[in-house]
Write a structure and sequence with these properties.
This protein has 15 helices and 9 strands. By secondary structure, the chain is an alpha/beta fold. The structure holds fe (ii) ion. Fe (ii) ion binds at residues 193, 197, 262, 276.
Length: 382
């Protein structure tokens, strides 16, 4: 069995209303200066929390996150420059994946001599001196438990990963109540992203039993509840299941990570600014069909976790699982073809070039992917 390293937040607090416990968090209580980076819709809730007497002897700065789309290198550096003088001893991120990724990088660099450009890639951040708490408000990236942050390099239009054990938050608060107002479209797209984290971890070349358990649970929770969360966003059971499923997906990202779905998604996100979950949703069925011959049993296991109960060969069961992903995606009104989101055949060579450069994820794919394979997959979903 291959070796594995599991790095997780020291404290994961899950439950309806747990945001109320944030003010009393021991990391916040021990801090003298706290910087909150907050998605705009959540600002009123956080302003209420900051009024608590627990903050009366502290310097507190609440920053409303103001960038749209994938945060860029220069946007992050602006954020860092604006708040570096504050020297917080605790950073709290409250929001979706982009907000949490920026909060993680702020905590890493705000009291540090390393610059953003020094830490892009795997394992280049030397340490983190500032405590970090993450509170997700979407059920998708799993950033609140993962060692990953993703920024857009505006010069090359390429998404770049910053991956470090020091980007794993110290604590996270998973409160499904905060996800209730997430619009149906975002609920569906981010939910499929979380599903793809679990599936790409379970079918990964470096899959591991310690992570399989998270991946399978995440797949079953998301498959059971994504359509309900899309159609009835106030269903707290569905919101809770999706937030847990997303957390399980995030727990897969550090030790195993994703593979070709995410690699092929990079160009669609970076070059065409297509939301990450949407591009993954379009790609996933075709990539899984391409991959399944490399590990039929694992793809059949995924299908069973998705709720497929037919008996048959592993191949038949695996295909039924892929069909179920397509059904769920359609039921959530997610586009199924690249042409529906403005991509044409002429764009494919460049998309393939970008995808083939994401070697840190392609190496994880259960089946070797050539440039020609990549082009064929894109063509199949035009
Ligand atoms: Fe993702």
């Amino acid at each position: 069995m291959n070796s594995v390293t599991l790095l997780q937040p020291q404290k994961i607090i899950f439950g309806e209303g747990v945001i109320e416990q944030l003010a009393g968090d021991s990391l916040i209580q021990r801090a003298q200066t706290v910087l909150f980076l907050v998605a705009p819709p959540l600002v009123p809730i956080l302003e209420g929390i900051i009024q608590s007497s627990k903050f009366s002897n502290k310097q507190v700065k609440l920053v409303a996150y103001r960038f749209l789309g994938e945060p860029t290198f220069s946007q992050f550096n602006l954020l860092l420059d604006e708040h570096k003088a504050l020297k917080p001893d605790c950073v709290v991120g409250v929001g979706g994946g982009s907000v949490l990724d920026c909060a993680k990088l702020l905590a890493a660099l705000i009291n540090h001599s390393q610059k953003l450009e020094d830490i892009v890639g795997m394992g280049l951040l030397h340490d983190r001196k500032t405590h970090l708490i993450c509170v997700p408000t979407t059920s998708g990236t799993g950033s609140e438990v993962s060692p990953n942050a993703i920024l857009l390099d505006e010069e090359t239009q390429a998404k770049r990963g910053i991956i470090s054990p020091f980007l794993v938050p110290d604590a996270c608060y998973l409160d499904p109540v905060l996800t209730v107002t997430l619009p149906p479209k975002l609920t569906a797209e981010t939910g499929i992203d979380a599903l793809s984290h679990c599936i790409e971890a379970y079918t990964n070349k470096f899959a591991h039993p310690t992570v399989d358990i998270y991946a399978l649970k995440g797949i079953s929770l998301i498959a059971e509840y994504i359509q309900e969360a899309f159609e009835n966003g106030s269903n707290m059971n569905a919101r809770s299941a999706m937030l847990l499923g997303s957390m399980y997906g995030g727990l897969c990202l550090g030790p195993v990570n994703t593979a070709a779905v995410h690699a092929l998604s990079y160009g669609l996100g970076g070059k065409f600014h297509i939301p990450h979950g949407l591009s993954n949703a379009i790609l996933m069925p075709k990539v899984l069909k391409f991959n399944m011959s490399a590990s039929l049993k694992r793809h059949a296991d995924v299908a069973r976790a998705l709720g497929i109960t037919i008996s048959g060969t592993d191949k038949e069961v695996a295909l039924a699982g892929i069909n179920k992903i397509e059904r769920l995606s359609k039921a959530c009104q997610i586009p199924q073809r690249l042409t529906e989101i403005g991509v044409t055949e002429d764009d494919i060579p460049e998309l393939a070039t970008i995808a083939m450069n994401v070697t840190r994820l392609l190496k994880n794919n259960p089946r070797e992917v050539s440039r020609e394979d990549t082009i064929n997959i894109y063509k199949n979903i035009l």
